[in-house]
Structure formats: structure tokens, C-alpha cells
Amino acid sequence: MNDVFTAENMKGIAKTLRFHGNQLRHTVLQHMNKGIFSWATLISRIQSESPTVIIPHMGLENITVRELLKAKGEAEATAVYWCNTSHLVHEAVKHMTTHNVGALVVLKAGDEKKLAGIITERDFARKVLLPGRPSEETRVQDIMTDEDKLITVSSSTSILRAMELMTDKHIRHVPVVDDKVVGMISVGDVVRAIVDQQHQEVKQLKKYITGDYY
């Protein structure tokens, strides 16, 4: 049945859409306002981009790290950008820049199947740039986060758990380990998934309101 919407009807629909569009964001963020980065700012910035479906709508509680890796595309999903402990920091930073990433997995020199830690742009800024250390003379092992302090997730870890770890541990990048390193997720990957799910939630609600669902 097709109804003629009055101005009052339309106001109600608009209010519902605004609430629905913000509800997911508020639910996710309500316990995540203590971190060193602002989830709200990241979400707002990515919301301004043109929405693209990266993960089929399934609800945040059902999304795992596996879906995040797949959403990066076939090439990126299996890509593991790395360096080893003996590399110079200058080389590691060049590698990050080449691949447009903010962190590298660090593998042990001489046994590059074993995880040694992680090096990030923040490590470079805090431990090399600020103290004025020469990156051409500093080894990755001197500034990286060691394996015993490293926070990792598996492919089966939920996106909500990954967000919780990032917030509680004040980190932006997390290696994905399934017996071996299979990838890396960043806070940007997580936020894009949140925004993507939100857009799809709103789209479904619009369809429901306009009668596309019966």
C-alpha cells in the first residue's frame, strides 16, 4: 500500500534515519573515548568519503578480522609488509612509504619465519626523530616493539575485540597471526568497516520505509 506522506510524516522519517545512522557509531564509541586517538574523528572523516561496500552487511558483532583482510582486496589481503631486525630504520621507513603503510612486521634476522616484533611510524617519530638519532645508523631492533610486548589478533578475532585491544593498549596497528603472520590490520581498516556497515544499515532502513521490504 502506498501512502501519501505529510510533512509531519517526513519529519518523523528524517528523525528516524538520523537516529539510525548515529546509533551504531554511538554504540561503538561509548566505551572508547579514552584512547590516544579519536575514534569519533576518524569515523567522521571517513564518513565524508564516498561510501563503498567493502563487507556485506552482517552487523559489527559478526565481523571478524578475516573479513577485514578480505575487504582490502585480493592482493592486500595476503600481503605482509616486513623488515628484519638487522635492517636500518631508514630502510624500514622507505619500505613503509613505498607501500603506503604505517607499520611493518619485524622478522628475526637469519630466520625470517619467526616474528620478532613490529615497527611503526610512531616508533620512528618518538625514538629517532625527536631524540635526533640518525636513521641511517640505527637498527630496527633498537626501536621496535619486541615480540614479548606485541599485541596480536587472529583471523577469527571479532572486529569489536580488535577495537577494544587498540583502545586499551593505545595502538594503531595489529599483526594478524594464525600460526604464522598472515597480515596486518590498522585502525583505519576498522573504522572503514564501521562506516561501511552504518551506510548499509541506513540504506536498508530507507528501503523498509519506502516499501521495498514487505
Description:
By secondary structure, this protein is of the alpha+beta class. The protein has helices spanning 7-29, 39-47, 65-71, 74-77, 89-99, 121-129, 159-169, 187-210, and strands at 82-84, 103-108, 111-120, 145-146, 173-178, 180-186. The strands form two sheets. It has a four-stranded mixed β-sheet with strand order 1-2-3-4. It has a two-stranded antiparallel ribbon with strand order 5-6. Helix 5 links the parallel strand 1 and strand 2. Helix 1 (7-29) packs antiparallel against helix 8 (187-210) and helix 2 (39-47) packs across helix 8. The longest helix is centred in the last third of the chain and has 24 residues, at 187-210. This is CBS domain-containing protein. InterPro entries: CBS_dom (IPR000644), CBS_dom_sf (IPR046342), CBSX3_CBS_dom (IPR044725), Diverse_CBS-Domain (IPR051257). Residues 76-135, 144-201 form the CBS domain.
Question: Tags for this entry?
Answer:
single chain; 214 residues; alpha+beta; 4-stranded mixed sheet; 6 strands; CBS domain-containing protein; CBS domain
Query: Which structural category do the helix and sheet elements fall into?
Result: alpha+beta
* Overall form: elongated
Number of helices: 8
Assembly context of the chains: single chain
Classify the helix fraction into a percent range: 40-55%
- Which runs of at least 5 residues are low in confidence (pLDDT < 50)? 1-7, 9-21, 27-36
Largest sheet: 4 strands, mixed
Strand order of the largest sheet: 1-2-3-4
Mean pLDDT: 78
Keywords: CBS domain
InterPro entries: CBS_dom, CBS_dom_sf, CBSX3_CBS_dom, Diverse_CBS-Domain
Protein name: CBS domain-containing protein
Organism: Eleusine coracana subsp. coracana
